[in-house]
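## Example record

The block below lists the input lines for one assembly entry, exactly as stored, with component labels intact.
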Amino acid sequence: MPTRIYLDHAATTPMLPEVIARMHSLMEDTWGNPSSIHAEGRTSKALLEKARKSMAAHFHCAIGELFFTSGATESNNMILRGAVQGLGVDTIITAPTEHHAVLHTLETLQEGGVVKVLLLPVDHRGQPVLRDLENHLTQLHGHRVLVSLMHANNETGALLSLENVGALCLEHGAYFHSDSVQSVGFYPLNFQQLPVHFLTGSAHKFNGPKGVGFALVRGGTGIPPLQWGGPQERNMRGGTENLLGIAGMALALDLALVDREARLQYLQSLKEHFFHGLRAALPDVEINGPELADGHPKILNLSLPHNAATDMFLFNLDIAGISASGGSACTSGSDAGSHVIRAMYPGRDRVNVRFSFSHLNTLSEINQAVAIISGIYHK
Ligand code: PLP
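Predicted structure tokens for the full assembly:
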């Protein structure tokens, strides 16, 4: 297979060799059921709790505030449904730029008539308008409100201030949930200090395995389980734990955080280099979302005018060996376009493509990608 250049790390990341090696060895020797009381079970239980302790230390949260799940979709469902069922939340304020794991969950809750969902407007940089949030919170006095806004947008890299939104929520007695899938492992998330009630993440976005994630639930904010069964996860999620995945996730988080600052700087340099290279070759290119210096350094969303070269752009990139995305991973296959970009630029008709980088990309790959894209564009 010819060498490919993978620039879709916001969709998913490859697992690091250290994580694969660890999971492989655990597969061979730590296979007991953590709920069993015999030696094999106790070994697995110890491993599970070691992973919890290590992740809780990174998030500065209590061990009892961290729940393992199958990923962020489940975690978001657990929080949003749980807040309605267990906390009596009757209104949820969110934004049209959230991931479908939030938006589609809220649609089903709203259709069931159990909750009212309010969508904040977003500006052309992808920021929800906080003045509108404040107005809503003021008017909703007497209601049980949850605000659900993501930390880093998976399509544009727009970064939200958790401190500012959390402070508004505190002032008005609202709960605050943040889907932090794209920022876990990249930004410090101190749950003890952040004014956030619920935070969700997923291992495969920081070089861990797929199908495993977590939810942080602030102590004392009792929500009911989403999934019923055995007493696993302190009765919050029935089902035998994905032990290998959890151990792999904990190691991947350790590795991401050891090098966090250096990686962020490196990602920023890759992003800038890529953009300046493309701009020189394709003067029509524009950024969707935050300015180059702002936003998550791993994500760069660009738009180009429609023409013969861009109408099949993602397809042509793929044929030429470059993996990028036109929307979130679930829609990129069918190329349905991006609900996020539509919300930010209503009525605009350009071709949008998201490039997302990792510390595994090299400068040489970036230079090659620029040359290939320029070739496609000027063919
Ligand atoms: N939230 C955001 C912001 C995401 O980017 C993703 C993954 O694409 C998800 C939620 C869903 O995560 P998972 O694949 O773990 O269910």
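Residues 305 and 350 are 5 Å apart (CA to CA). Residues 17-258 form a domain with the Aspartate Aminotransferase; domain 2 fold (CATH 3.40.640.10).
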